[in-house]
Amino acid sequence: MSTLLLDGRAVRAALLPALADRVKALIRPPTLAIVQVGKREDSTAFIKAKIAFGEKIGVNVKHIHLPDTITQQELIAKIQECNADDSIHGIIVQLPLPIALDQDAITEAVDPCKDTDCLTSYSVKRWMEGREDALLPATTRGVKELLAHYKIDLFGKNVVVVGRSMLVGKPLAAFAMNENATVTVCHSKTADLAAETKKADVLIVAAGRPGFIGADQVKEGAIVIDVGINTIKGEKLEDEVSGRKLVGDVDFDAVQPIAGAITPVPGGVGPMTVVALFENLIDICMR
Ligand code: NAD
């Protein structure tokens, strides 16, 4: 069986000109503020990728870098400053935040009208309900567009999502449900993971565990979407974002021969997430 490679880099390249045209059509170039607390290397690498992509399509990205000694109140005050600043159209708080900070309270401080990551309760309600005017969190929107590009329809399919985080697993599950799939969500307490994942027509994995889905957990012909991004220290690699070796949650070499379609890591969902983030920003500007 030949397996279709779901190539996020190629789809990103195909979408880029239309995105740049949408930016040009706006009255003024949009500005996205990314608030980073501390010096996590992976966060810095992801922000660099967002800045670089913003430059390509004519979007300003304002990187607001704060020390990890910042208090909750000071951080919320900084976000409120961005909320009030008319020259800023979208705001992202780069996650994860240092453990001492209350992530929920901080993401909730973002003005829902500038909530590019779709994590305020206002946005969550809308994407949970599957409202037509709802923006989706970037990873979910990226997966949606990747599937759409390859004309993969979730209607009536058994979709299994591994992972239940607010940022990734839950919005992906809600999206699949709203596309009329029958959805199973697995997590760290799932009793028999393989029994669930083998039922999947479409298997979406977002667990943050390098290579842990093997061939014996996948049904022949399944569509496998690997959201995981895990950096392997000490190995040389060339990844465009991190400069380090990246692997997904799926053992690509083992699963690829039996899958009907599969995303690589790097080069699958990751590039689509960046595109989707800027699509969210442009949608916000057009409201
Ligand atoms: P998280 O740690 O918040 O959540 C992980 C989830 O996996 C949890 O719900 C947990 O229950 C589940 N899990 C952990 N071990 C499991 C096991 N053995 N069996 C079944 N479920 C298990 O992580 P997250 O923020 O949701 O991110 C998940 C992965 O996706 C990470 O690798 C992250 O780097 C990646 N990610 C990728 C993108 C992208 O654009 N491709 C964006 C965001 C996150």
- List the quaternary state of the chains: single chain
Bound molecules: nicotinamide-adenine-dinucleotide
- The number of E-state strands comes to 11
CATH topology of the largest domain: Rossmann fold
CATH architecture of the largest domain: 3-Layer(aba) Sandwich
SSE sequence, one letter per element:
EHEHEHEHHHEHEHEEEEHEH
Question: What structural class results from the helix and strand content?
Answer: alpha/beta
- CATH class categorisation of the largest domain: Alpha Beta
The average pLDDT value, as a whole number, equals 95
What topology, given as strand order, has the largest sheet?
Answer: 1-11-8-7-5-6
Structural notes for this entry:
With 287 residues, the protein is α/β, with parallel strands linked by helices. The chain has two domains: 28-113, 3-Layer(aba) Sandwich (Rossmann fold); 137-270, NAD(P)-binding Rossmann-like Domain (Rossmann fold). The chain is 38% helix and 18% strand. The protein has helices at 8-24, 41-57, 72-84, 103-108, 121-129, 138-149, 169-178, 193-197, 252-255, 269-285; strands at 4-5, 31-37, 60-66, 90-93, 158-162, 182-186, 202-205, 223-226, 230-236, 244-247, 261-262. The strands form three sheets. It has a six-stranded parallel β-sheet. Strands 3-2-4 form a three-stranded parallel β-sheet, with helices on both faces. Strands 9-10 form a two-stranded antiparallel ribbon. Strand 9 and strand 10 form a beta hairpin. The longest helix is centred in the N-terminal third of the chain and has 17 residues, at 8-24. The termini are far apart. The site of nicotinamide-adenine-dinucleotide has 24 residues, from helix 10.
